[in-house]
Amino acid sequence: MFKSLLLIPALVLSISTASANSDNEVQLDDWMFNPLSKFVTEDQWKKITDDMYEEKIKKEKQARMFGEGKIITVDTRDQKECKSLQETLKRTTAASNSELEKLCQQDEKKPYTSFVVVGDQNRTYLSLNGLSDRQRKLAEQTRNFTALGAAAIGLLWVMPESVSKWDKDEITSTGLGNKWKENVQEGPVVDKDDWMINYIGHPISGAAYYTVARHAGFNKMESFGYSVMMSTFFWEYGFEAFAETPSIQDLLITPIIGSLMGEAMFSMEQKIKDNGGKLFGSEKVGGFAMALMNPAGAMLDGINGFFETEVIKSSRTYLYTQGPSQNRFGSDNFEIQDSVIGIGIELKF
């Protein structure tokens, strides 16, 4: 009996010890077995990996602000290698077969040909075939406005924030695509730009759109419609929406006041032309006045000259779409980037 009583505390002690050992096993920290635990704590390592992931995403978003592509140049005289490359591109890119079929076409004067590969983009090239002369001219000028718009955005980006009113840090951290969606969903709003920008700068832009259409051969209402389209979709909900919310003043003032100014400028220019290009009896004064009446015309014609130079072998404008991409870093972070729709200009030198 006495021996049995001694066994009971021993059994209880054994159970307690086993329970304690079991608890210790459950509470064992896997981080102790990680070689990095000698140098940093688990929280410090988690912060390091989070920072690395955020930096990776930030760089990818910044990279998407600009197109990333590769130019593949091939000697068409080597048909075997060219055909092999052609088949590889068909399997590994989203390029259209019609474009790839032209890759190996031989030209004795131009034996080398090139092909642009841009990630998983699907491009639709815009053709001007079948357009009337005035439609073709306006399409070319719209392309040139796109080049000017990109240059204007670049200029505003390097200007002080007190002038542009753009929060560059927020734009960079958020990403252009996400920032554009935020601004479009929030707008339009009453902006706080300087009065010179709202009531002088924007009407001049609207007048430029209007006069370009008038010079292409369109009537007053058609030119007004073009000014509305360009000021609304090209600028307010296009380029500028990447940086700021669309503005009510700009949506109204740019096309309306701009078209009135544009028609007055166009009429004055026609009167000077009817007078033999003279104003106050002087051709120099008349030429200077006509340049002031159509400021966009000279710039856009200059861009046309750039696209038609001998240095540039060909230039094409295209719409492109890029499907959503997945970014994964480690095992805990996962992100799906949105689809992208855009317009681009391809130059071959």
Give an overview in words.
- The chain has 349 residues and is of the alpha+beta class.
- It has a domain at 133-311.
- 59% of the residues lie in helices and 13% in strands.
- The chain is built from 13 helices and seven strands.
- The strands form three sheets. The protein has a three-stranded antiparallel β-sheet with strand order 3-4-7, with no helix packed on it.
- Helix 5 crosses helix 13 (295-307).
- The protein starts with a helix and ends with a strand.
Which labels suit this protein?
two-stranded antiparallel sheet, 349 residues, 13 helices, single chain, disordered N terminus, 59% helix, three-stranded antiparallel beta sheet, 7 strands, alpha+beta
* Terminal CA distance: 104 Å
- Given as residue ranges, the uncertain stretches (5+ residues, pLDDT < 50) are 1-24, 326-336
Quick one: overall form? flat
Structural class: alpha+beta
Please estimate the helix content: 55-70%
Q: Report the radius of gyration as a whole number of Å.
A: 32 Å
**Whole-number average pLDDT?**
73
Q: Taking strands numbered 1, 2, ... along the chain, how are they ordered across the largest sheet?
A: 3-4-7
The major beta sheet can be summarized as:
3 strands, antiparallel
The fraction of residues in strands falls at: 5-15%
List the secondary-structure elements in sequence, H or E.
Answer: HHEHHEEHHHHHHHHHEEEE
What is the number of beta strands?
A: 7
Number of helices: 13
SSE map:
Blueprint: H1 2-27, H2 42-63, E1 70-75, H3 79-92, H4 97-101, E2 112-117, E3 121-125, H5 133-158, H6 161-164, H7 168-174, H8 176-186, H9 195-215, H10 220-239, H11 248-274, H12 283-293, H13 295-307, E4 314-322, E5 325-329, E6 333-337, E7 340-348
Antiparallel strand pairs: 1-2, 3-4, 4-7, 5-6
Signal peptide: 1-20
Protein name: Exported protein
Domain DUF3943: 187-295
